[in-house]
Amino acid sequence: MQGWIDGIRASMDYIEANLTEDLQIDGIAAVAGLSPFYYQRIFGALCGMTVGEYIRSRRMSLAAQDLARTEEKIIGIALKYGYDSPDSFARAFQRFHGISPSDAREPGAALRSFAPLHIKISLEGGSMLDYSIVEKAPFTIVGVKRPFNSDTSYQEIPKFWDEWLAQGEDRPVMGMFGVCVDAGGKDFDYWIADIYLPWKDVPEGCETKLIPGSLWAQFPCTLKTLQSVNTQIWSEWLPSLQGYTLGGDSSLEIYLPQDEKGEMPVYIWVPLKKA
């Protein structure tokens, strides 16, 4: 999988060279040789932020330099970095730098700098990550889905779960699965679902979806370690993976009943195919 690490590096060079152009996630991911769905998962794990956050931060950093060092009009700088109006640019600039664009031109103005990121994978002592590669036949889930955007999903998906769980035992599905399904670009659908039992009616407001048969890398964790294991998968395990590549257009979380210790076993499934 080392090839896609080189691809991520190439994509970041591409972003840097095109910060004043209309950057789209499809084009950025294509440079890395990955689908937008997987590119954004890997980028977030490696860089600790979304692709959109990174691009906005770099643009705001460069815009501040333009304001401080040139006489170019604010509207011109706003358009240069992808903002349609001075007002939208001013709001974004204020959030990032804490001052207005016009104040940035004052002598001694305090500005924030955000340097380009450089991906460097290094081995700094082994860390254990349990996993197994299993082959699963196709199966069907039933549940509710909601569209999400990669830039805001980390904040919004927990709210989706909170809303669903607040229904208590009356909710039509309990939530054995959390499923991310690629919808193109920055968009994906997130399902809260159970196994579909064909002899039962589909509950009102729910849908079914076939999960194709596949090889899956299966990682055990708990609710407490879910995020840390997920980050470790994308930033450490995948770069060292031999003989397989990413497959499919979805990834799954499986939530099992609490054990005797009161902990909920959780599994993360990542689809694979043989290289």
Give a description of the structure.
The chain has helices spanning 2-17, 25-32, 36-47, 51-69, 74-80, 86-97, 153-165, 226-237, and strands at residues 132-136, 139-149, 177-182, 187-195, 207-211, 214-222, 244-246, 250-255, 265-274. It folds into 2 domains: 2-105, Orthogonal Bundle (Arc Repressor Mutant, subunit A), CATH 1.10.10; 132-274, Multidrug-efflux Transporter 1 Regulator Bmrr, Chain A, CATH 3.20.80.10. By secondary structure, it is α+β, with helices and mostly antiparallel strands. Helix 1 (2-17) packs across helix 2 and helix 3 packs across helix 8. The model has no long low-confidence stretch (mean pLDDT 88). The protein contains 8 helices and 9 strands. Strands 1, 2, 3, 4, 5, 6, 7, 8 and 9 form a 9-stranded antiparallel sheet that branches.
CATH topology of the largest domain: Multidrug-efflux Transporter 1 Regulator Bmrr, Chain A
Continuous helix count:
8
In the predicted model, the low-confidence regions spanning at least 5 consecutive residues are: none
SSE arrangement, N to C: HHHHHHEEHEEEEHEEE
What is the percent of helical residues?
25-40%
Distance between the termini: 10 Å
Q: In this structure, how is the largest beta sheet organized?
A: 9 strands, antiparallel
Topology, number of strands: 9
Report the β-strand fraction as a percent range: 15-25%
Mean pLDDT: 88
Q: What is the level-2 CATH architecture name of the largest domain?
A: Alpha-Beta Barrel
CATH superfamily of the largest domain: Regulatory factor, effector binding domain
- Total individual domains: 2
> Compute the gyration radius: what is it?
22 Å
Helix and strand content put the structural class at alpha+beta
CATH C-level category of the largest domain = Alpha Beta
